[in-house]
Amino acid sequence: IEHRALNDSVKLIRGTNPLKSINMLFDIAKAQKDFPNPQLTNTYNLIAEGLFTQGLFSESLSYYKLALDCFSSYKNNQRDTGVNYPPWILINIGNVYFHNKNFDKAFEYYEMARNVFSSSPGHNSIYGLPTAYDNIGKVFFNKANKDSAKVYFDKSLKLRQSNYLYGASIYSYNNLMSLVLPADEALVLKYKNLVDGFFNEIFAERNNPEGQINIETNYGTFYYMLGLFYYNLSDFETSIPYLIKSRNFLNNSFSDLITTDCLLAKSYIGLKKFNQADSLLQKNLSFLMEIGVNSPAIKIKVYEVMDNLYSSQSKKDQLLSVKDSIINLKASISDNKLNNSILSLETSLLLKEKQKEINDQRLNYYYLIFGLIITLILFSVFLISLRVRFNFQKEKNNRLALEREFIDTELKNKELELLSTATYIEQRNNNLRNLRDNLNIATNNDSNKSKVNQFSTPKLTKELDSIIKSRSSFDSFKNQFTKAFPDFFKTLLNLHPNLSPTDLRLCAYIKMNQTNQDIASINNLSTRTVESQRYRLRRKLNIDKQTDLFNYLTNLD
Known about the structure:
The chain is built from 25 helices and no strands. With 557 residues, the chain is mainly α. The chain has a domain at 406-556. α4 packs antiparallel against α5 (87-99). The protein starts with a helix and ends with a helix. The model has no long low-confidence stretch (mean pLDDT 81).
């Protein structure tokens, strides 16, 4: 927080006291150099901006490089935002290329910044995206493509107005002013009315989100553009008041103030007001010395106007002195140094890109290894799970086999019990028949009539016949049979509800795999009678001759 406050305080004085601001930034950077963070990146960027404003382009590139290095350091250690380079620094580097008239390279950096702002909506995007559009438009303007330039200037203006950034909208009108044709004074006056309206509305509001310094600078620059428009028309009388008003709002931007004063001096020269022009230019040189700006580029700008002034007055001595100064200042500007700085920056950026590719490849390799490990673990878990399920299923099958074996044993026991019951019934019936026969014999014997009469022989015979023919024997057999084959009778009656008890009894004997002779013996019937019963049963069951009756009944249960 303290670091940010120091950076913000420097911004307030860098336009009026650039030497002091640069020294403060150097001290801040020196104290914080071992702690890479966003504010240190901003400090290096502010130093580079200050050097650029003074025309020290080679030195500014060195600090832009430091800013990028700092950004890379804390980006790699603290976060991964998906942003390879800070977009504002990309714009500033593009400005260096733009000043060096390498418009294609400048466009490349502006486009990179635009892409970052477009993919990162938020506060920075609101301010940054229009700036990127402005600079791209300037590239097209300097490449004599005014139509494309206007498209981007209009985009910038639309974005700023949609976010109620009226101070920044004034800057958009500054750019649009550069496209106005000399004959279109009506459009110039229209822009002037709009900008004046914005400026008055802004300062009518106390809580304005935009910085007052930037708003005043933009407003002063617009009046400079008005003065430039009329200067290009050689209407110096109209140009001068606009330029004077312009410089009143540029006190916080020494470079813009020098540019305005140079144009104002040229307007005075146009009106042959040489003394006023000379006085203004001398004041500018003194002002630069006073604020500690020793930039050859800015001084050359002033001396070139002096060259024009003394040429107009035919002051050879002063003219020679000025030309010598220009030659010496230009000699102090090393193009090789600037080119070397540009080359160093580009090499650094290229190395960072290559390193990023290597890091990405390494990261992809780690992801691949991690993926293979996860796949191996999942496959191992799958195999273990499969093995466990196999063992569980095997155990379940073994248990089911044992249960089936137990059931089969129980079934065989029930069948044996059923056969025992059937045998018992057969024996009982035989005994009852013997008893009946004996009673009949006794009844026919005269010697025993008196004794038999005591037992009511006909009645007893009738009761015995009833016992033999009763269903109690079959009911007992049926109960035993049902325990062995619980669903047999139910299934059979569902399919053939017209079966009689005799039919059911016969079906049970057949399912027990009893022969006709066995069934006849058990039921005290003749074999022929059993065969007749089987024939009638087959018809009731609607079974053809080719179907085995035993197999049919066996498959029912």
